[in-house]
Fold these 2 entries.
Entry 1:
Amino acid sequence: MSKLWGGRFTKETNQLVETYTASIGYDQRLAFEDIEGSLAHVQMLGECGILPENDVEQIKAGLRKIAEKIKNGEAAFTVENEDIHMNIEKMLMDEIGPAGGKLHTGRSRNDQVATDMHLYVRKTTKEMIRLIALVQEAIVTKAKENKETMMPGYTHLQRAQPVLFAHHLLAYFWMLERDKERFSDSLKRTDWLPLGAGALAGTTFPIDRERTRELLGFSRIYPNSLDAVSDRDFVLEFLANAAILMTHISRLSEELVLWSSQEFQFIELDDSFCTGSSIMPQKKNPDVPELLRGKTGRVFGNLIGLLTVLKGLPLAYNKDMQEDKEGIFDTADTLQGALKLLAPMIETMKVNREKMFRAVSNDYANATDIADYLAKKGLPFREAHAVIGQIVLYGIQHGKYLLDLTLDEYQSFSPLFEADIFEVLKPEHVVKMRNSAGGTGHAQVAAQLQMAEKQLRKP
Ligand code: ARG
């Protein structure tokens, strides 16, 4: 079969080369972006008087027909035509005849593929932002239901100080908020248009790049044609943002796995989000958060993969760059799937308030508060810390928690203790008193919830 570029060749392409170098298997996902870019390009060619109106109209009609066929699953892509760009060009020529051969005037596949990728990343970035917000909504809903629910806060996975479950959940809200912000920020740079850069050096045709930019709705054109066709930093940024987002998803997933274990029993994931064991009838496995945690590997891998592809490349286009596609498709699919699952999984999970409260009560997590109590009575905090250390040790040795000790016992450690210590040690009080900005105190968490909701209502 004759190639679109076959003129200077005397031999057919080796079969293995053809299969190995073809990208149509995956870049057919860019079909509509490719057509969108071509429609703008040919429109501009017409307006600039580079192609006659008649050709422009034929080409546009042909492209639209092809889009329709692809939508209806009637288009047959072939490996012989290598990639989506040449497949569509070939289809166009079959559709409208020789006029189809004029579409590629003043353009190269190099600025074409870069344009398709910009369109794809721009669209996908917006979708990511939308899906992250859905998870944030679910978090806010759960947090609102748990404004009073107390749980142990941890450091080193050891109980540290009690917190509100709403507070713990909202920590993820803000991580996701920054993830959204990172995607919006990278959108600014994805919004540059490479089309019109030609193969690498520009073109001899009197094209109007600003017009194509306007038609495709980009904010600016790349000022340098070499840069336009040879960088994929906008793809890297997407992959990096995705990797950070996936880290957050993975940490949340790990907590969901941990909390639903028999050891914790803080939450129960809905049956519809769990699976069973083929041998142990009693099992209910948190497969979804486990898999989300596991999928982090490929998302990180895709970032490292493309960084490595680009790192030693001389300017401008090199075939290596075709390797930018599968990774980003995979990352986008993985994350979109993850975000779509997370929202309803969070919404439907049951929170075991009693278990959480027991974990808070049967514990020494209120020890800091006795230290604060003595410090407020004038004892230097360091000294107070040492005294409470002894009290905790005494408690452990006598099988008593801090609320179980008597006033006499407290006073044997320091005369500063009075009867109000028992109020101070109650978990509700311990939480409520942490009223510094951003703390877990009820008033702070209520304010935080308001802030979060306001953030979500922003356009
Ligand atoms: N399939 C190629 C890619 O994805 C399109 C650009 C090819 N350009 C070239 N000069 N071979 O990178």
Entry 2:
Amino acid sequence: MSIRIAIIGAGLMGADHARIVAKDMPGATLQVVCDMDAARAKSVADACGAKDTESDPEGVIARADVDAVIVASPDFTHAPLSRACIAAGKRVLCEKPLSQSSAECLEVMQAEQAAGVRHVMLGFMRRYDQSYVEMRAALASGDLGRALMMHNFHRNVETPAANFTGAMAITNSAPHEFDVVRHVLGTELTSITAHQPRRSDDRVAPVVMVLDTADGQLVTIEINNNAAYGYDVRAELVGEAGSITMNNVAYTRTDIRLASSTRYDGDWRGRYHEAYVRQNRSFAAFVETDVFPEIASDCWDGYCASLIAEAGVKALKSGMKQPIEMINQPLFYATAKGTLA
Ligand code: ISE
């Protein structure tokens, strides 16, 4: 039987998820598109052939004809809607972040542990991107030797909002790196410093962070939300015996008038389209089998990303290195990615 999916939030990401469910997820049906803005819900539903539209998220989660939910509404709704899904016994793919507050992430974790089974998969889609998959595999193969450093660059064309700040670069953009670095290196981040150069205008300047890991590695992360030239994400993992670098993802190169060029995507939806499709298919498999996908991120990962971001904001504001002090990982999240042992 086809999995009937409801999408909550019909903005940029909700519309993207709706297209993926409708076109790229065999075995899934786009059942409902929900948005407070009825016209926006209808326009996405019509474009993607959804069966119905709604404006009340809690009502959608409770519907008997909805098997699973994708939450793509504004960030502050992610935690409460994930909890509503847990209460209703529905699996949810929640866009990042789970919450910008680590305390609120803990509340979702408590609800999920009380339910005793996995409900929440978190949308840190980069784990499904082939470049990070290959970096992780290269490290696991032993060919690179012990990991020493991971360098990361995350550049957006421009900020999503005019009043975007350095702190928002850390809480909104950098969590992707916080998550994927933990995932690729397989260790925890333990401290953070954050620095900013000066721009000549009033736009937010890049934020450069240096983090230590529990295994004695160094991680650098540059977040540049106003890079102007294109959406550009780079990473290099340096081991004691070699290094692995992400290539710019471009299907073609144009050689003309004594010059050679490739294209950049305008934002993450193009660059990571394949990763989103893989992630969403893996969510469908989770709904079908009850087995939590091996590489997906969960509420624990959401908590870690938020906690690191909180320490990063403190580091930026104070100019001082900040410790990252996580709680002990609950057994529920440390053990088999299925039901409570
Ligand atoms: C946005 O929310 C994302 O998740 C993108 O992947 C990231 O590149 C961007 O900076 C964020 O604003």
